[in-house]
Amino acid sequence: MPALKPALLAALAALPLAGAASAQGPATVEPLVPAAGTLLDVTAEGRTMRVPDVATIHAGVVSQAAAAAAALGDNAQRMTRVLAALKKAGVAPRDVATANVSLNPQYRYAENQPPVVTGYQASNGVTIRFRDVARAGAILDALVAEGANQIEGPNLSIDQPDAALDEARTDAVKRARARADLYARAAGLHVVRMISIAENGENAGGGNPPMAMMRTMAMKDSTPIAAGEKDVTVTLSVRFLLD
Question: How confident is the model over 23-44, as pLDDT tens digits?
Fold first, then answer.
């Protein structure tokens, strides 16, 4: 009988190992959902309330003159007085930021004629954060007295919303569990446990409240600024196991 070649001997030697591996069967994978029970997905919004403690307002100066240099010079002088008024009122430099500076020609238009430059308009605007909302109205009046002729806002917000957001998260979990208990009772089941919690979004009190919810905090004879209350909300998606 002819001798077997080395390559054939190696192939034969490997056969028992392959058979042993196949005898072990496929690897098992842990299921992603429980084998028994009913899954319930609940979306719940938790909320709490806070009085805004920061008002953000845009104040600016708009100047017009026949020459560009004159418009820009007048604008610079008036804005210097506005910034000085903010400093005198105790507004911190970190709470004042330039938002825009512009210089644009003004045109007169006539039918069938090219536009004619009639002058120039210069504008300079700053964004101001008032950390004492009650004083915001009086400060705005001072700004107008010093030359500000463009005001937009306020946008009322909460300076440090983390604690309020945590309250809203706790409320959302309680609401989700109460809703799960309701569904479970209606189905003749009970809640075994929470399987997962995912945060879908939050609102830290941005945007202005409706006028009906506002509470006036202005000083007498000043522009009224109403702080009101802000809804701080968090939305959760919670999965429960029912049995």
Answer: 454 555 454 555 578 999 999 9
At 90 the pLDDT is: 87
CA–CA gap between residue 83 and residue 38 (Å, rounded):
64
116, 107 in Cβ contact below 8 A? Answer: yes
Question: Taking the mean position of all CA atoms in its chain, how far away is CA 142?
Answer: 31
Domain carrying residue 206: 38-51+161-242
Q: What is the pLDDT of residues 211-229, one digit of tens each?
A: 323 333 333 456 777 778 8
Please state whether 119 falls in left (phi above 0), alpha (psi between -120 and 50) or beta.
left
Residue 9 banded pLDDT, cuts 50, 70, 90:
very low
One domain for residues 166 and 147:
no
- Of 157, 178, 212, which closes a domain? 157
User: What pTM does this model have?
Assistant: 0.65
Largest CA distance in the chain: 119
What letter does residue 164 receive in the DSSP assignment? H
Same domain, 60 and 149: yes
Q: How far apart, in whole angstroms, are the C-alpha atoms of residue 124 and residue 105?
A: 15
pLDDT in tens, 51-78: 998 888 899 999 999 999 999 999 999 9
Distance, in Å, from the CA atom of 148 to the CA atom of 99, rounded to the nearest integer, reads: 14
Would 26 be classed as within a structural domain? Answer: no
| Structural domain count, the chain | 2
Residue 21 class from Cβ within 10 Å (0-12 exposed, 13-18 middle, 19+ buried)? exposed
